[in-house]
């Protein structure tokens, strides 16, 4: 018997019925447009078509592009062709061959042939990654498979997924497919009883990533509303198998909320709370505050904390207070004895952090108890490292304090510490002070190097350890490959000069070690490794994996020199060498250009997947190579493999609207699923407003959840937010409660200020939490006022002394908008519990915003002062009366808030503490000129004069060096390019400073002798070169480093012109530059003359980087760019146009800039440019800050 229901269950496909919604009438209907001709299905030979058409009922199925292309690719005697001809049964096709069949071919088979497909074949097809992009075919497949067969499929997939490790199933399905299958399953069981649903969930229990927020909510709705049995089943399925780790953070929170809702008033009982772990994600500090001490102790005794990944903000302190207040807990010396029992320590789980505060001094514990406490706090009790958001967090202040106590207990004399002791302190060694590292025994370092290699040392600390290791190994020259392998992560800190000493063969032998540490390397290090690893034919090396991880450090001209070889690979259909290579955008542009020219038959899904990272080089014209038949799945594959710019995404959105989606007012859930998440924010608000009423909520959630939402213009975000409110029936009026704000999600960032004013008390917390996701930008006073009002609603306008941890955690990074008096009045104990939020502040971006717009209004002074007070017990008032003397440990615990230390406090640090803390202080930005000058003077008084600072000390200066005078910079030892880079990469130098620094670096050497790695390492100090000196740079070194030079912005117009001339000298006339070359040179293009800009081709203009656009002189921009040129700009390029450039343009040019920035659908609603306060200015500021971070 055939079922028309997914898996043969109870209802039809589960697709949303197309119920038209009432929508606004558009004033001006857009004229219809004839779409361009798209690639069509290749012709299938007549003799083959006649033989297999019967399998489909007729030959129309062969008109589908992917079907026809696949059939044509098969040998005439292949088992697939033979089966379609009826020579053998469909079931006789091997699983490996069957999985290659396009979904469109399989679902177009007639019923008789479709029935012959086996469960094993379906499993093989589903698990092929390439097939998981075609949701539409999955949906059709789900409606045609019989009940019995799909149960076989589920059973087989479940068995295979859990065979290796039932605790962590490996279903072999993408998150989207798991989401789809679970959703269909839940919808199909809409009428199942509570008990049956709880039992039936086992069938999909192997797909934890399918337990999305949306599916969990459907589950709650479909099971007698918050059925307790279903809630418990969800908990049991996903915690006993540790599937918790594989679920998204918001889904884990939803599981917890489900359990809370199902338990009702009984949620806070020991029995119900005890069922939660590890799903404690929805617990609040208030939940713990409401629980009695006896309840918490009972939970502790039952092992509740053992399976908790983390407690809510402030939870540890609440647990401590509850335990301390209970007569059931021992006191005094008995408490110390209690916690010297390692089992009792372990049972506290993450709350073990409170032990220090409970006993007063951790050093009272025995070493085994402290080590157990360390493993308990930092170890992953539930999930493997990296599986949860919690596991990626840096150590807490309490954990660092424990590390220091352990070090004090076992490293009283660092020089006498053995390797065994170092090994026993694994996980704590990164807290060693620089002075302790310098005194370690070299032999002990050698014997414990594998332990030390796994620690997260700073660059300066790692360099010191490497020197100890070399001393212990008696290395006087270059390191061997075996020694580099022993260094592990420390290899990322090997100086460029040390890498240069190694033989090329040893570099190649060490490539896997270097690759694993590459993320922590400087650009100069990566360049050096790539250069030394090169040997012979590049394609041969790529094939053997010798240099793959450092492909993006290779110069573009080297890649462009092998285009014939790449073309030969493409002609053979071999893209394997390029699929996993890390590439710069320019490299990808070059590689894809060669591949594109050799493509035959258009661009299909499998080709996109095989191209891997190279697809990032595709221009929007590549979309014309995709047939409409395949467009949805190819677009999805493209956006999942690369981050495209607005031009590509906007064209995808337009193609979906014009040619793929028949009618938005008849849009189905499956249609919505086929629109890539990256694309949907660029769908017009008018089109999305037309979807059926039953689907508008799903549309809102997909738009709000897109990672590209914030890459759209603010006017588009505002329109999407308006749509979301209209969907809720609250477009212009009505209070916004928790469910409203929850559905609005990140769209609240683009909503008008008035929308925040309608958030009621029930939605306030969620609104504040969502506002933390908004991009860093200048906030208007009205916006800040609205955020304060929302905070007031959440706290019921509580006095500052009554503000709790949950409230501060909710407002998070936006706490600076609160009145200073409010911030000052918040209890220190509350602030101390949420210090982690300061680490999330993007100080560099905020610093640039403030420099470019003094009215930006991001002032964290009061917040930072409060953090200092909460951390050190020293209030701002007291700090004004007397100077607090800080230790390095205290400074490090402050994180970003350390920039609030006064000049007197910085100056009062002892010489030893300041010296140990130099790298920490130099690594922070956001210092005032006075603070930097104070630290500069302290360097000279406590460490050494400028002319006697060692290169290691220069390295540690970091940002502090920006306060050095030209005389100081002229005296520094700048012979170590790593040290040079660590001070030169900071912004804030004047032209005179960079001139002094570059002159000191150069000395009596010739400019022509500067190597690639040194050009890269000089960074901002290149701004100290004269135009004549720029002309002397070796052409080869320039070409090898221009991609990095093109990230710099601190050049004068004359210098940019000289750099452009050098680019012409090195790579030919501008007219010969490829699109990839224009992209590669970055800001160097800002030196193009009016005539050169005018002569740029249609292929070159789109590749000018936004950074270059904003640096072109005003008159050059206005006279060099025609309207036709400006029409070629992307949104990113257009929004990089500065106000000075914009207002110097003609009306036609301005209109063209606006159109490029906002698009035809939003340009008429765009805010006018009227100075730095415009929306545009904020976008430019954010872009500029992000760009400068690259330096």
What would you say this structure looks like, in words?
This protein has 1191 residues and is an all-alpha fold. Mean pLDDT is 89; it is low at 1-32 and 1172-1191. Helix content is 54%, strand content 0%. The chain contains 76 helices and no strands.
Task: Supply database-style keywords.
1191 residues; mainly alpha; 76 helices; disordered N terminus; disordered C terminus; cell adhesion; signal; membrane; Mesothelin; Stereocilin-rel
What is the percentage of strand-forming residues?
Answer: under 5%
**Multimer state:** single chain
Which whole number gives the mean pLDDT? 89
Q: Got a strand count? A: 0
Number of helices: 76
What distance lies between the first and last C-alpha atoms, to the nearest angstrom? 66 Å
The major sheet is characterized as: none
Helix content: 40-55%
Going by helix content, strand content and strand pairing, the class is: mainly alpha
Shape, principal axes of CA atoms: globular
Report the uncertain regions: 1-32, 1172-1191
Radius of gyration: 32 Å
InterPro entries: Mesothelin (IPR010335), Stereocilin-rel (IPR026664)
Organism: Branchiostoma floridae (Florida lancelet)
Pfam families: Mesothelin
Keywords: Cell adhesion, Glycoprotein, Membrane, Signal
């Amino acid at each position: 018997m055939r079922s028309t229901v997914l898996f043969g269950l109870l209802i039809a496909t589960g697709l949303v019925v197309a119920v038209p919604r009432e929508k606004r009438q558009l004033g001006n209907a857009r004229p219809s447009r004839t779409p361009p001709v798209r690639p069509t299905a290749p012709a299938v030979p007549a003799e083959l078509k006649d033989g297999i058409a019967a399998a489909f009922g007729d030959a129309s199925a062969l008109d589908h592009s992917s079907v026809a292309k696949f059939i044509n690719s098969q040998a005439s005697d292949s088992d697939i062709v033979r089966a379609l001809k009826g020579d053998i049964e469909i079931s006789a096709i091997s699983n490996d061959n069957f999985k290659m069949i396009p979904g469109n071919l399989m679902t177009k088979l007639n019923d008789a042939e479709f029935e012959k497909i086996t469960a094993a074949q379906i499993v093989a097809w589903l698990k092929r990654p390439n097939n998981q992009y075609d949701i539409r075919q999955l949906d059709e497949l789900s409606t045609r498979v019989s009940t019995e067969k799909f149960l076989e499929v589920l059973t087989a997939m479940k068995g295979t997924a859990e065979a290796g490790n039932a605790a962590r199933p490996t279903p072999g399905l993408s998150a989207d497919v798991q989401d789809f299958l679970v959703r269909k399953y839940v919808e199909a069981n809409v009428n199942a009883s509570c008990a049956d649903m709880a039992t039936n969930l086992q069938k999909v229990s192997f797909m934890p990533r399918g337990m999305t927020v949306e599916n969990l909510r459907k589950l709650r709705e479909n099971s007698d509303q918050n059925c307790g049995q279903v809630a418990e089943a969800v908990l049991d399925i996903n915690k006993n198998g540790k599937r918790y780790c594989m679920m998204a953070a918001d889904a884990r929170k939803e599981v917890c909320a489900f359990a809370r809702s199902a338990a009702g008033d009984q949620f806070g009982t020991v029995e119900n709370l005890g069922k939660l772990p590890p799903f404690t994600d929805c617990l609040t500090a208030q939940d713990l505050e409401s629980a009695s001490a006896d309840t918490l102790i009972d939970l502790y005794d039952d092992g509740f904390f053992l399976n908790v990944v983390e407690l809510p903000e402030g939870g540890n302190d609440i647990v401590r207070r509850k335990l301390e207040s209970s007569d059931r807990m021992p006191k005094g010396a008995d408490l110390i004895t209690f916690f010297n029992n390692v089992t009792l320590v372990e049972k506290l789980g993450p709350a073990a952090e409170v032990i220090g505060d409970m006993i007063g001094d951790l050093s009272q514990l025995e070493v085994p108890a402290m080590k157990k406490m360390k493993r308990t706090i930092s170890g992953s009790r539930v999930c493997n490292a990296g599986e949860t958001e919690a596991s990626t967090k840096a150590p807490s202040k309490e954990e660092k304090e424990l590390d220091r106590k352990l070090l004090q207990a076992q490293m009283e004399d660092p020089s006498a510490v053995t390797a065994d002791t170092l090994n026993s302190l694994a996980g704590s060694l990164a807290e060693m002070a620089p002075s302790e590292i310098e005194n370690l025994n070299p032999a002990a370092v050698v014997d414990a190097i594998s332990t030390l290699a796994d620690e997260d040392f700073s660059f300066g600390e790692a360099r010191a350890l490497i020197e100890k290791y070399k001393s212990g190994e008696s290395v006087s020259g270059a390191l061997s490959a075996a020694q580099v392998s022993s260094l592990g992560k420390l290899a990322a800190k090997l100086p460029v000069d040390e890498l240069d000493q190694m033989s090329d063969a040893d570099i190649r032998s060490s490539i896997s070690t270097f690759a694993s540490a590459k993320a922590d390397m400087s650009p100069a290090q990566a360049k050096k490794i790539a250069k030394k690893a090169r040997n012979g034919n590049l394609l041969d090396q790529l094939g053997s994996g010798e240099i793959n991880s450092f492909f993006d450090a290779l110069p573009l001209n080297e890649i462009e020199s092998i285009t014939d070889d790449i073309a030969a690979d493409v002609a053979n259909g071999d893209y394997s060498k390029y699929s996993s290579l890390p590439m710069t955008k320019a490299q990808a542009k070059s590689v894809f250009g060669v591949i594109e020219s050799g493509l035959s038959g258009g661009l299909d899904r499998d080709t996109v997947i095989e191209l891997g990272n190279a697809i990032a080089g595709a221009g929007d014209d590549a979309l014309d190579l995709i047939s409409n038949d395949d467009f949805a799945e190819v677009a999805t594959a493209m956006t999942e493999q690369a981050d495209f710019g607005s031009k590509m995404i906007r064209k995808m959105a337009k193609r979906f609207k014009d040619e793929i989606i028949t009618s938005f007012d008849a849009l189905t859930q499956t249609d919505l699923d086929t629109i890539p998440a990256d694309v949907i924010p660029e769908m017009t608000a008018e089109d999305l407003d037309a979807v059926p009423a039953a689907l508008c909520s799903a549309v809102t959630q997909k738009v709000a959840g897109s990672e590209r939402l914030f890459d759209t213009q603010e006017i588009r975000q505002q329109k999407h937010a308006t749509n979301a409110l209209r969907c809720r029936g609250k477009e212009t009026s009505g209070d916004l409660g928790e469910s409203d704000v929850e559905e609005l999600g990140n769209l609240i960032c683009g909503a008008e200020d008035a929308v925040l004013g309608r958030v009621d008390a029930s939605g306030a917390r969620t609104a504040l939490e969502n506002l933390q996701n908004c991009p860093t930008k200048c906030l208007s006073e009205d916006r800040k006022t609205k955020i304060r009002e929302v905070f007031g609603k959440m706290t019921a306008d509580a006095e500052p002394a009554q503000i709790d941890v949950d409230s501060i955690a909710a407002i998070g990074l936006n706490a600076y908008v609160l009145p200073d008096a409010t911030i000052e009045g918040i209890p220190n104990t509350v602030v101390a519990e949420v210090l982690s939020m300061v680490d999330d502040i993007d100080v560099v971006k905020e610093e640039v915003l403030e420099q470019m717009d003094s009215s930006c209004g991001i002032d964290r002074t009061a917040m930072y002062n409060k953090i200092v007070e909460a951390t050190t017990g020293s209030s701002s008032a007291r700090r004004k009366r007397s100077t607090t003397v800080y230790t390095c440990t205290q400074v490090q615990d402050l994180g970003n808030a350390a920039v609030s230390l006064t000049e007197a406090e910085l100056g009062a640090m002892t010489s030893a503490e300041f010296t140990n803390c130099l790298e920490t202080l130099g690594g922070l930005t956001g210092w005032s000129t006075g603070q930097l000058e104070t630290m500069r003077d302290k360097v000279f008084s406590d460490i050494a004069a400028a002319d006697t600072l060692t290169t290691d000390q220069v390295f540690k200066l970091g940002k502090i060096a920006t306060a050095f005078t030209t005389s100081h910079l002229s005296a520094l030892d700048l012979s170590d390019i790593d040290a040079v880079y660590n001070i030169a990469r900071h912004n804030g130098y004047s032209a005179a400073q960079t001139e002094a620094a570059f002159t000191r670096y150069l000395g009596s050497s010739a400019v022509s002798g500067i190597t690639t790695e040194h050009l890269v390492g000089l960074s901002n100090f290149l701004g100290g070169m004269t135009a004549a000196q720029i002309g002397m740079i070796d052409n080869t070194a320039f070409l090898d480093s221009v991609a990095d030079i093109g990230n710099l912005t601190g050049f004068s117009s004359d210098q940019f012109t000289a750099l452009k001339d050098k680019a012409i000298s090195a790579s030919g006339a501008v007219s010969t530059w490829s699109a990839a070359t224009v992209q590669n040179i970055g800001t160097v293009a800002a030196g193009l003359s009016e005539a050169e800009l005018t002569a740029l081709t249609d292929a070159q203009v789109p590749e000018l980087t936004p950074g270059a656009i904003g640096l072109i002189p005003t008159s050059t921009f206005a006279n060099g760019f025609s309207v036709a040129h400006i029409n070629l700009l992307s949104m990113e390029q257009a929004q990089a146009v500065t106000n000075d450039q914009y207002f110097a343009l003609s009306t036609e040019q301005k209109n063209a800039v606006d159109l490029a920035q906002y698009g035809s659908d939003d340009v008429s609603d765009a805010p006018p440019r009227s100075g730095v306060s415009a929306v545009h200015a904020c976008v430019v500021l954010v872009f500029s800050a992000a760009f400068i971070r690259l330096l």
